[in-house]
Design brief:
There is one protein chain. The chain is of the alpha/beta class. The chain has a single domain, classed as NAD(P)-binding Rossmann-like Domain (Rossmann fold). 39% of the residues lie in helices and 22% in strands. The protein contains ten helices and 14 strands.
Length: 285
């Protein structure tokens, strides 16, 4: 059984992924008190003392939780510094897998089913996107670092500002669902992301970066309608700005053809129903 260091274990991704990985791996998910990711010596000591085989790096500065501390500049510096502290010790492990972001592809343009190669041809304009872009360049130049490029993900314990959770909580509160501007997204359930990460741990990967999504485009307004239908309420949807915002949909041919996982991903309607049940339980807790 491989020993996996999972960073960000208390975050949205980490707390959902850890129990699934634990079926096949020995998962270490240290808190900030147990492992200071900003300290390169502490990182090296932790990897050596715990005989870590694989790093899964999901820790990230969180502007939702820390809007003042995690400015664009600090997000650039902090996310890149933590990544580099792990990357510098990649020779101590079999492989390092980290969560990239669709922000690498420059969200000032439509991201409409772009492949990994086409998306990487555009330099992002924001600091966080640039940091993720640089990480991807380092991963591609390495022998054992892999980028799982995440676009839109949802599931238990998602932040209240995230769209699907926002829709559900609006309904639970008797409020209309608000949408700043409609656009096309591709949402995948965090349990499916866990399966992708488990695959990456156990298999030799042909490429160093993979776009990750469900393969289904859907408008935010249609997601809101699905939520209303599943919750048995009349549609009350307010779109604040006319027209369409930029498309944010990955091309996932590389992931689909290599792993064969996409066909088994949780359908969006089923995943939303699962999320509604979770939110109702939380709401009444």
């Amino acid at each position: 059984m491989k020993t996996v260091l999972l960073t960000g274990g208390t975050g949205f991704v980490g707390r959902n992924v850890a129990p699934i990985l634990a079926h096949t791996c020995m998962v270490l998910a240290p808190s900030r008190d147990d492992l200071a990711l900003m300290d390169p010596q502490a990182v090296r000591m932790y990897l050596e003392e715990n005989h870590v085989d694989v790093i899964i790096h999901s820790a990230n500065p969180n502007p939702c939780k820390n809007p003042q501390r995690d400015s664009d500049q600090t997000m650039f510096e902090d996310s890149l510094r933590i990544f580099l502290n792990l990357y510098a010790h990649r020779t101590l492990v079999e492989k390092m897998v980290y969560l990239g972001s669709g922000a690498e592809f420059d969200k000032s343009h439509d991201i409409d089913a772009l492949s990994e190669e086409d998306g990487a041809a555009r330099m992002p304009s924001d600091g966080y996107g640039v940091a993720k872009y640089l990480m991807n360049e380092l991963a591609k130049a390495s022998e054992n670092v892999y980028n799982i490029r995440l676009f839109a993900c949802y599931g238990p314990y998602d932040h209240e500002s995230k769209f699907i959770t926002h829709c559900i909580r609006c309904v639970l509160s008797g409020l209309p669902i608000t949408i700043r501007q409609d656009c096309m997204f591709d949402y995948m359930h965090v349990f499916d992301l866990a399966d992708v990460l488990a695959y990456a741990v156990d298999h030799r990967l042909a490429f160093h970066d993979y776009n990750v999504g469900s393969g289904r485009q859907i408008a935010l307004s249609d997601i809101a309608r699905i939520v209303c239908s599943l919750m048995g309420v009349e549609e009350r949807i307010v779109i604040e700005n006319d027209g369409w915002n930029r498309v944010y949909v990955p091309g996932i041919e590389r992931l689909s053809s290599e792993t064969g996982l996409v066909q088994g991903f949780i359908p969006l309607e089923q995943g939303i129903a699962m999320q509604i049940e979770h939110e109702r339980n939380q709401h009444h807790a």
